[in-house]
Amino acid sequence: MTLKKRMRVLLHRATIAIGVDTRKLRPDRQLLERTIFTQLQKDPRCQSILFVGCDWYTLHYPTLFKTKRFVTLELRPECAPFGAKEHIVDSCTNITSHFEANSLDCVVFNGVFGFGLNAPSEIERTLVGIHESLRQGGLLIFGWNDLPDTVPLPLDDIVALQNFTPCTFGDLPSVVHSSEVNRHRFHFYTKA
Predict the structure, then answer these.
(1) Residue 16: what are its φ and ψ, rounded to 5°?
(2) Are 95 and 133 in contact, with CB atoms under 8 Å apart?
(3) Do residues 126 and 92 make contact, with C-beta atoms less than 8 angstroms apart?
(4) What digits encode the pLDDT tens for the residues 21-54?
(5) Which of 139, 188, 182, 189 is nearest to 28 (CA)?
(6) Is there a contact between 60 and 12 (Cβ–Cβ < 8 Å)?
(7) Three-class secondary structure of residue 191 per DSSP
């Protein structure tokens, strides 16, 4: 970890510990942390949550879900300190190696598609695994950047995504929410 990143982590830990968040959140991260997470916290159906992908800015996420089972999964071992107590170091393509069928209520899959998960076969395998791991009616929150250089393939071409049904979530009125910064999109799906 670089010195700059280490300093950022220490500052983040210190400010979160005293109840202050000094980060300048982009609109897409605000939507995730302040709106989507708030809905997840309130939703009694979402007790077992998998969050895929960790870095310094996710360090405080487990504290937001103290009353729920919050599991993190990240391929890079150096990012394990930014995950939950229940953290898995592995590729999201291997999700079924870590979760039984129908055992998760929600999977937050944000910033992975097009940022490490790029091969069509790996995308398909991951989404098949997420589908298998989610219970009936379980929620998939799929966040991605709709930019030409970060989209490995159109969402309509992902066969495994067709196993899910678009849905609304909580107080959010549509099945897709967008932020113009990075053209970030959040799609909400349920396992039908």
Answers:
(1) -65, -40
(2) yes
(3) yes
(4) 555 567 788 889 888 999 999 999 999 999 999 9
(5) 182
(6) yes
(7) strand
Q: Which residues contact 151 (CB under 8 A, 6 or more apart)?
A: 113, 114, 144, 145
> By the 8 A CB rule, do 125 and 90 touch?
no
Q: Which residue has the tokens 């799609």?
A: 187
DSSP H helices in 18-147: 27-30, 37-42, 61-64, 120-133
Tokens 């944000």, residue? 110
Token pair 């010195």: residue: 3
Q: Which two tokens stand for residue 70?
A: 């919050």
**Separation CA 150–CA 122 (nearest Å):** 15
The pTM of this model reads: 0.87
Q: How far apart are CA 106 and CA 146, in angstroms?
A: 23
Per-residue exposure over 100-126, b if at least 16 CB sit within 10 Å of its own CB, e if not: eeeebbbbbbbbbbbeebeeeeebbbb
Which residue type occupies 191?
A: K
pLDDT in tens, 108-164: 999 899 888 899 999 999 999 999 999 999 999 999 988 888 899 999 999 999 999
Tokens of 154: 């159109």
59: DSSP letter = T
